[in-house]
Amino acid sequence: MGQIHRFSLAILLVMFTGIVSAHTGSGISGGLLSGFTHPINGWDHVVAMVAVGLWGAFLGTPAIWVLPVVFPLVMAFGGALGVMGIPIPAVETGIAASAIVLGMMVAFAVRPPILIAAVIVAAFAIFHGHAHGAELPNAADPLAYSVGFVVATGLLHLSGIAFGLLVRWPVGKIAVQAGGGIIALVGVGFLTGVV
Amino acid sequence: MINGLRTTVTWILLVTPNLAFAHSSVHGLNSFINGLLHPLFVPSHLLLLIALGLYLGQQESNNNLNTLKIFLTSSVVGVAASAYATGCEVDIILLGETLIIGLLVATKPSLTQHWHLFFGASAGFILGLDSVHDTVAGVDKLISLLGSLVGLSMLLLQPMAFADYFKKHSWQKVGIRVLGSWVAASALLVFALTVSTRASI
Description:
The complex is a heterodimer.
Chain A: H1 2-21, H2 27-41, H3 43-59, H4 63-83, H5 91-107, H6 114-135, H7 142-164, H8 170-192
Chain B: H1 2-15, H2 31-41, H3 43-58, H4 64-82, H5 91-107, H6 113-129, H7 139-165, H8 170-200
Helix pairs in contact in B: 2-7, 3-5, 3-6, 3-7, 3-8, 4-6, 4-7, 5-6, 5-8
């Protein structure tokens, strides 16, 4: 009886190694999933992406769609630099600074011309892209990984836009600006290492 | 003793299904279906078809029939050319064209019909060239290629119809442009990875 239990336990332990390997994933689905979860698992990325959407919605047309179009394209450029091993100084600081700056833009209702807004967003996108790009060579399927993280980034923008559309109402505008303030504070937390 | 064995077997049966995730869905399918599904299971093919479909869907519907004809013809030519171009690495060209077309979807410039024909022809040729299965031969290979040609055409029509349908309102057009930027961004990253990997070898 005792031997059978030990045997059962041994079989179970052997079987569970399959579950452990499923964590990293393999092939197209593994690459897609790991790419999709990469931006979502990093809160510094999440708050900055939401801030891009929030600011876009706050600025209105055409920024509401120009910023989410510019960001992934320039992010991919930053990712390409990362893939090719071209270093960018202070990547993590840049990512934290993106949350602070974009959060403050929303909090203080800053309305620059669309070109300036696009340049600001694009500058920060390079840091985010570089961080993602560094992971790309290790991905199970690089293209599926790229699609996953670009789509996740876009959906985070969309969630920011959805929240930002509350600016149509006076109370909503306060909520959006407060959201921007919280994002900026979280960015300060990342920069100082508190968060 | 018997209870212990039952417990063991039950646990094994409960735990083993996690191994099934590694299944290959094309096993057991005939050559035609394998070919049909080929562009769906090759991400770079699928991405180029999405990019081209969105691009064509953004254009005037009346002009697209000629582009579709050119696409199909050049796919057949590409498949035929693959017999003479074994071992040809086209992934960089695939990604490069996806990047360009994705950027065109995102920026939506006014291009003439000649450009639509050019992109349709070049995409069809490259996809046809890269659709040959190494694991099959003889009649199976021909049937598989026929399936691939049908698959390429069907998969091109999906995003094309999607983009064509969703161009009634400005927000829909914006949505298509955003999708184009996502496609271009994904292609750019892997393009850079492929180029840097080749350069380091």
